[in-house]
Amino acid sequence: MAHAHRPHDVIKQVEISPNYNQDKTIYIIVREQLLKSENGGKSWYRLFRGLDNNFDFSSLSVAPKNPKILYISAPGDGIYRSQDGGLSWRQINQGLDDKQIALLSISPHSPNVVLAASKNGSLYLTNDGGGNWISIMTDTQITAISFAEDEKKNIAVSDSSGKVYFSSNEGFTWTNIVTLNNNENIQSLAFSPTFNQEQIIWIGTEKKGIFKVEKLGQSITQVNKGLSDQKIRNIVPSPNYSQDSMVFLSTWDEGVFQSKDKGNTWKKISQGLTKDAQADEAQFSAPHFQDLKISQTFSQDKTLFLGGFDGLFTSTNGGKRWQEIPTLSTRVITSLAISPNYKNDSTVALGTYEKEAYITKDGGKNWKPIIRGFATPSYQGDSEPSIVIEYSRFYDLIFSPNYAQDQTLFATFLYKLFKSTNQGDYWQQIMISSKGRGILRDTYIVASPDFANDKTVYIVTKNGGFIYRSNDKGQTFSVISKLDHPTNAVIISPNFAEDKTLFVSGINKLYKTIDGGKTWQIIADNSSFDDMALLQLVVSPNYAQDQTIFLGTNQGILKTIDGGKKWEKLANINSIDNVSIEAMAISPDYQNDQTLIASVRGLGLIKTMDSGETFEEIGRDFNKRHFIGQMVMSGSSPLHFSPNYAQDKTIYGFGSSMANLYKSTDGGLNWEVISIPRKTDFIAEAITQLRITKILLNVYPALRFLVALIVALPVYPLLGIFKVEKKLPIGRAIFKTGITASFCLLIFVGLSII
Question: What is the CB-side half-sphere exposure of residue 251 using CA atoms within 13 A?
Answer without folding.
Answer: 22
